[in-house]
Structure formats: C-alpha cells, structure tokens
C-alpha cells in the first residue's frame, strides 16, 4: 500500500444548537472522533443515512469548515496548521463535487468561464492556452468543446454534472471529494456519470472520496468503505468484504434494506435514527440494534480488526450475515442484450 | 374477472404553452385490480407523475385530459369538478414524495387526519380524532396519542410519511396512488414505509399505483409494471416477467444502468444521450435516437403489442431474441 494522500486522526466537529429564542441548547456532535486513511490512487466511500455526519466529514477533510479537534493530514502535512494563504495554494490539489449540479454552477458564467476560473486562479496555464485547455477538459468529460460558449441553463442535469467535473479537474487535483455526485441524476444518466468517474479515476490516477447513501454505486466504484452512524464510523474495510460479510449490525441492516433483493430478505430495522443532540450512551446504534446487551449502553465499542474493522462488542457472536444480493434478473440473455448498449457507446465515441 | 378498480384507456394529457401544445402523456392504457400494486416506472419527464395527477384530477390549470379514466367502472372524466372532489380522499387518495409540502403546518397531525374522516365519513369531531389515533397506531407511529397532537415540523420525515399514509387510508379508499413515497427518505425508513403500504393493501384490498424511478422498489413491491418513456408506455408486464425477460430496449438499458449490490459488472450499461424534448419529439419510436437496436422502421410509431402472453412491448424489433440467435 502506498503512503496515504489523506489521513484523518480523531477528527471531531460540533455545531451549536439554539432554540427559537437563539439561546444555546447544547451541541450536535456531527462528527465525533473519526480516523481514516485514504491511500493515494484509491477510492474510499463514506456511507450512511442523513444526519450521520458524512457530508460534514467531507468538508472537514478539505478544511472548508474548521474541526474542533484532531489532525487532517494531506500528504503528511496537517491542513489545520496552514495559514489562509498556504491553504489557498493547497486547495489546488483538492476539489469537491456537489450533489446538485443546478446549484453548483454560477448561472452568469458560461461553461468556458466556469472551467477557466480555476485555471486562472491557480495560474495553471498561460492565458493564451486557456481556451485550448478548456476544450481539452470538456472533451475529457465527454462534452463537445463547441458547447463552451453556452450557459449552464442550456444543459441537462447530467451535462451540468460533467461541467462541474471538468471544473474540478481543471486545477489538476490529487484528491477529489464527491458529495453525492450522482444522486440527483436519473438512472440512465447516473450510469453515464458513474462510468465517466471510473474512467477518470483510472486514467488520471485520482484519489477519490465518495460520500453517498447509494450502496449500489458505492459497491460499484469504491475500493474501501467506511460506514457512519451518528457521527462515528462503525465499520470500515475493503468494499467486497464489507458488502459480502458485514460485521456491524447497522451495516447489515443498511444492506438488507436496499430494495431489489426480494421480499424474504429484509428483517426491518425499527424506528428512526435518534437525535444527534442527545445520542445514546455507549454504542450509538444500540437503541435500534436487535442484538444489544447491557454492556452496549455502558461502553463505547472500539474499532476492532486489522484491514476490515468494526465497532461492535459482539461482532464475534452475531449470527451469520445475509449477503446483500440483488434478485437474479434476465441471466445470460439480458447480459448479451445489454452488451449492445456498451458496444454502441464505443462505436459512437464518447462525446455527448 | 371482476371490474378493475382503475382503468385507463388511451389517456393523453396536453398543456398549451407559448411554443405550442405540450403532450407529457400520450396514449397511456393500463388497469389495476383490487389488492394489487401496479408500478409505473420511468425517469424524470416520462409522464408518470402527470399520469397520477390526471387520475386524481389534480392537474395544474390548463391541463387537458383525453381518453378515459374509470374508477370502479365510473368514468371520472365525465364528472363535474364537485363530484370529482367528493371522490378524492374517500374513494381515491394520494401520497406524495415530500410529506412536508402536503401537510398543513398550522394544524396538528391528528387534526388533519380527523378532518378527512369528518368530510368523507361524516364522523363527529371527537369520533374522528379517536379514529385518527387508531389509524396512527395502525401505521405504527409510536406514542400515537402524543403524535396526534404534534405539529408536522415536530415529526421526522418517516413519521410524516406515516401520517400521510394514515390520512390516505383512513377512509379505506379503493385506490391509493403513491408518487415516489419514499424517495426523500433514508433506506432503512424506506423499507418500513413500503412494507407498511403492502400491509395496508393486503388488509383493506386497496388497489395501489406506485410511481417510482427505483427498479429495486418495483421488484420487491409490484405485481404488474408499466415502463414509461417520454410520455408513452414502452413495456407492460407482470413484475416477475419484466425482470426475468425484459423486451423493450429501454427496459434492458435501464436494468443494466443500475449498479448491482453484489458487484461484478466492470462497467454499467449506460443509455447514451438524453430524453427527447417533448415539444419536439422524434417521429415514431421516441427511444429510437438512443437505441442500439434501431432500424429504419423505427421512424414509425410501434404499437404496444403482445410479445408473450400478458407481456407487451412497443418495439418493432421485439422479441430481440432473434438478434441474439443471429449474433451467435
């Protein structure tokens, strides 16, 4: 394994909670003691349901919001120790792609201006070569360079997300964090953008952190997965292992709840996620956990394991996990028919 | 066979616009029987939600519906607006994607469910509120007495959607239309809500039209499926048959575009291009510009024709199996 590009050590962030009169009523520990390692050239997915802290974690990692404690090491250098100027220079190496391509592009900038902005900001190419570089970036993300003079509103959601990706690639970053980058897209367009992201990761050697609630997409592109629940990581490991042999009861419940596996599969998790203002003591999942014991209320379970880790006191004693698996479809016939779609893409070239 | 609860016959919806007439729904026919779930699946702009609103009689101003929509044999399009309003809530109910926008923030959850019962079943205010609490218990809202006195903002998203389902089913409607009922919810809560709709359907015999973009949801919860593309039905089949033996190229592409939970595929089968502009749809089959199987004949509109018994596809090239034989 190569040296980590990004490493988080015991990072925490709380947000004050105020009542209707603006009085402080305590704090939400949105991220509570998270440690993670992202090796260079790898894809790490952070999964979890709303409010688990996954988006906050992504912003902390880029120092878009300030952590309360912990270290954020980028190529071994703690970002929290950098001056504003040094951080700005560092930002060239790390980019964020957002979920909503309708909100993340300035409607008053043409595509060319939007993609050229980071080029100019970081002095990446001389002005004279700007237009050419923009054209290269656009064709890199599967858009015809002639579209550079158009405005964001002239594009569909999928095309806008391609523009946002081109803009993120402009500064030649080492790390890209995608916060639900394909969640707002329709299935067929989502598949196009997922394929594009995979190609870019492979061809440019990008390190990618995918923040997502979509377990299918995560399974498809991530090397490793971290599962978050109420601000903490409860399980982390190689994607195939976490999906094939989940060790934390929450991961198991999450996988079982994915629709499309047939009726018999899902033992339902009861209730909603508890309020993060007053999280349960000990293991935070214990209030919904079918295997909870008195110990779970008393002690926070540590992350145990070597490459595949889980934070559960009873992970050795759980019944065997049901493996997340979609019900079988169409078989060989369908696979062969679907191959026509892939062949056509190759024949037409990739420009949309 | 008994009369279907809902029957759509060549339904079209048109809106006048500055650029001409827009037809988001173009000749849609299907039917649903009591106690069954029909899923309408498709991507944004395919016309699935407009179809739902046309059935409910809730289209935005200017929307014109053609064809026939029959509820338990009664032609809804022949009714006056007042008559249609009387059917809504009592005979047919709808659950929307975002419960916060369909609940009134100024009234408690219990009051809103009770109102439906007073209007449609003529219950007294006290009896209606008691029945509302009973409905809350049946949709497994914890502490129903307390929740019935809560305002919508005090409830979580999953709880609000349970309130909407309690409201929709309080009057035992013949038909429930659920338009992306779980899209805004987390996956563990989604599983609970969909199980609840299934359970209620079994108990009351309500016919369910489930509108969704999620093929996984369709697989687990539908008896029959209609796949829509650009305002038209591309394929219609029993759910098991659709997944085992999809016939329309669009369905085949869609199934390949969803990443699978057990992994395996190196690359997703993506459908290139985008959905056509409905102001200016391509002639003939609307999927043809994106279809790897398209031929010259596709410039004419293919009829929705039976490929195998009970399984229909609107494709000149169906069944595609002969292509596979030729390729082999």
UniProtKB/TrEMBL annotation, chain A:
It comes from the Bacteria. Keywords: ATP-binding, Nucleotide-binding, Transport. Coiled coil: none annotated. It is a peripheral membrane protein. InterPro entries: AAA+_ATPase, ABC_transp_ATP-bind, ABC_transporter-like_ATP-bd, ABC_transporter-like_CS, Oligopep_ABC_C. Its main location: membrane. It is found in: Cell membrane. GO terms for molecular function: ATP binding. Pfam families: ABC_tran, oligo_HPY. Residues 6-255 form the ABC transporter domain. PANTHER family: D,D-DIPEPTIDE TRANSPORT ATP-BINDING PROTEIN DDPF-RELATED, TRANSPORT ATP-BINDING PROTEIN. Belongs to the ABC transporter superfamily. NCBIfam families: oligo_HPY. This is ABC transporter ATP-binding protein.
Automatic annotation (TrEMBL), chain B:
It comes from the Bacteria. This is ABC transporter ATP-binding protein. Its main location: membrane. It comes from Falsiroseomonas tokyonensis. Residues 6-255 form the ABC transporter domain. CDD domains: ABC_NikE_OppD_transporters. It is found in: Cell inner membrane. NCBIfam families: oligo_HPY. The keyword Signal does not apply. Coiled coil: none annotated. PANTHER family: DIPEPTIDE TRANSPORT ATP-BINDING PROTEIN DPPD (PTHR43297:SF2), OLIGOPEPTIDE TRANSPORT ATP-BINDING PROTEIN APPD (PTHR43297). It is a peripheral membrane protein. It holds the Pfam family ABC_tran. Belongs to the ABC transporter superfamily. Keywords: ATP-binding, Cell membrane, Membrane, Nucleotide-binding, Transport.
